[in-house]
Amino acid sequence: QVQLVESGGGLVQAGGSLRLSCAASGRTFSRNAMGWFRQAPGKEREVVAAIGWNGGSTYYLESVKGRFTISRDNSKNTVYLQMNNLKPEDTAVYYCAAAAGLFRSATRLADDYDYWGQGTQVTVSS
């Protein structure tokens, strides 16, 4: 069974940091582009960050540039999202996703992803 499992979410004060992890099981995703998305209540899902299959390309939502960093460790089949200087508007459920196809660069399009995790809640208090 193929699974993406997110962890690391929680409650943090504004200005704080969290590190999300996405561990894959059931198959390797070392040749897949990966992404982090988020969805806040009443809002549409949006891409936060994406990374190419070998880490050679990245994409960031404009509002998180300079604060969030996406990385991957293919030996551990894991993708990370380091979030610094968190703001209340970052509050959302964060989802990890694996893109379809192999050896792709970072992609921001949700339709390019065919495996999704169950999500982890991030709450930033003011």
Question: How would you describe the overall organization of this protein?
Answer:
There is one protein chain. The protein is mostly beta strands. The protein has no helices and 11 strands. β4 and β5 (46-51) form a beta hairpin. The model has no long low-confidence stretch (mean pLDDT 96).
Features:
126 residues; mainly beta; 11 strands; 0% helix
Layout of helices and strands:
Blueprint: E1 3-7, E2 10-13, E3 18-25, E4 34-39, E5 46-51, E6 58-60, E7 68-73, E8 78-83, E9 92-99, E10 113-116, E11 120-125
Parallel strand pairs: 2-11
Antiparallel strand pairs: 1-3, 3-8, 4-5, 4-9, 5-6, 7-8, 9-10, 9-11
Total of helices: 0
Radius of gyration: 13 Å
Helical content band: under 10%
Strand content: over 45%
Low-confidence stretches: none
Helix and strand pattern? EEEEEEEEEEE
Mean pLDDT over the residues = 96
The description of the largest β-sheet is: 7 strands, mixed
Structural class: mainly beta
Shape category? globular
What is the straight-line distance between the termini?
A: 40 Å
User: Could you give the count of β-strands?
Assistant: 11
TL;DR?
The protein has 126 residues and is an all-beta fold. It has no helices and eleven strands. The protein has strands at residues 3-7, 10-13, 18-25, 34-39, 46-51, 58-60, 68-73, 78-83, 92-99, 113-116, 120-125.
